[in-house]
């Protein structure tokens, strides 16, 4: 290879660096996606290769069973929680982007929950929400608020709020760091000019901050939406989908591994993918239609 010309060596190097990622992409992304799509048209039980082509029967069953789509009401808790978390994260990002004493310490502390593994986070919050010795009920008792003590995971009217809060707490730091990075890209001269012109803090936020980070806000809304639709680890590890905490992904996993209906589970996964793409397209088309 050393006898080749510089141009030929460059082409071989580029070919080598591109080939490995493309092979890995094909093996772990493209091929599984195509296989998933194929399995959705079969009655495969996940054992061996004995599968029968049944066409659109799985999709017909999905859209004819109201219970399959009824679990999206659980995903709604995570979506609303994600919107609240994103708003608070933007507020904290603005505060911690200023010259505040100890701002780097607060950034690290608020980002740490995202670093924790989901299983560790759930185990920790089990000790927070436990009805008898949980720290939350203990704190309420110390403050004289015994009437506020609840079975946070046993009450079907509260359990999804409790789980959505865990998700908000875990992913808050990531949203905040993304917003801090976006805010640091805004020239300080704009704020100084606005201040000289007599603009208030709210006016600077509305007319400088929001337009400048519009793309980042769009990204965060997409991540919030997809994260809510794909909520799985926290409700599954904490409750195994019991007490009304089943999400669409949990139902899909149960359909595959508990009921051994991989064909129907694959069709449900394809439907979820199509729903995500549809909602993202609508969001970009109408919510951010003013963008070039």
In brief:
The chain has 292 residues and is mainly α. The chain has 14 helices and no strands.
Q: Could you characterize the architecture of this molecule?
A:
By secondary structure, the chain is mainly α. The protein has two domains: about 5-60, no CATH class; about 70-245, MetI-like (MetI-like fold), CATH 1.10.3720.10. It is about 70% helix and about 0% strand. The protein contains 14 helices and no strands. It has helices at about 5-40, 55-65, 65-70, 70-95, 105-115, 120-130, 135-140, 160-185, 190-195, 200-210, 215-230, 235-240, 250-260, 260-285. The two termini are about 45 Å apart. The mean pLDDT is about 90.
**Mean pLDDT reading:** 88
Any idea of the CATH topology of the largest domain? MetI-like fold
Low-pLDDT windows of residues: none
Distance between the termini: 47 Å
- The proportion of residues in beta strands is under 5%
The helix/strand series, from N terminus to C terminus, equals HHHHHHHHHHHHHH
In total, how many domains does the architecture comprise?
Answer: 2
* Secondary-structure arrangement, i.e. CATH architecture of the largest domain: Orthogonal Bundle
Strand segment count? 0
Indicate the radius of gyration in whole angstroms: 24 Å
What is the name of the CATH class of the largest domain? Mainly Alpha
What structural class results from the helix and strand content? Answer: mainly alpha
Query: Quick one: overall form?
Result: globular
Q: Could you name the CATH homologous superfamily of the largest domain? A: MetI-like
How many helices in DSSP terms?
14
Q: Major β-sheet, in short?
A: none
Share in helix: over 70%
Transmembrane segments: 12-41, 76-97, 104-125, 161-183, 216-242, 262-282
Pfam families: BPD_transp_1
Subcellular location: Cell membrane
GO cellular component, one term: plasma membrane
């Amino acid at each position: 290879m050393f006898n080749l010309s510089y141009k030929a060596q460059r082409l071989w190097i580029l070919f080598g660096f591109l080939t490995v990622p493309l092979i890995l992409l094909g093996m772990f992304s493209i091929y599984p996606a195509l296989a998933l799509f194929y399995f959705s048209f079969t009655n495969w039980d996940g054992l061996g290769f004995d599968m029968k082509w049944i066409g659109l029967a799985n999709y017909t069953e999905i859209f004819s069973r109201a219970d399959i789509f009824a679990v999206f009401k659980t995903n709604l808790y995570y979506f609303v929680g994600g919107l609240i978390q994103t708003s608070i994260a933007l507020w904290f990002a603005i505060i911690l982007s200023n010259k505040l004493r100890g701002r780097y310490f607060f950034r690290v502390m608020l980002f740490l929950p995202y670093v924790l593994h989901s299983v560790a986070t759930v185990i920790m919050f089990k000790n927070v929400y436990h009805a008898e010795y949980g720290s939350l009920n203990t704190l309420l008792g110390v403050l004289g608020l015994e009437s506020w003590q609840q079975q946070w995971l046993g009450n079907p009217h509260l359990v999804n709020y409790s789980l959505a809060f865990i998700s908000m707490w875990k992913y808050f730091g990531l949203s905040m760091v993304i917003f801090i990075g976006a805010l640091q890209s805004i020239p300080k001269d704009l704020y100084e000019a606005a201040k000289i012109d007599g603009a208030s803090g709210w006016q600077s936020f509305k007319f400088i901050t929001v337009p400048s980070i519009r793309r980042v806000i769009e990204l965060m809304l997409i991540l919030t939406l997809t994260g809510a639709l794909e909520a799985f680890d926290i409700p599954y590890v904490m409750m195994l989908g019991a007490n009304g905490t089943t999400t669409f992904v949990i139902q899909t996993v149960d359909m595959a591994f508990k009921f051994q209906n991989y064909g129907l589970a694959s069709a449900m996964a394809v439907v979820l993918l199509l729903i995500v793409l549809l909602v993202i397209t609508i969001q970009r088309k109408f919510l951010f239609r003013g963008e070039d």
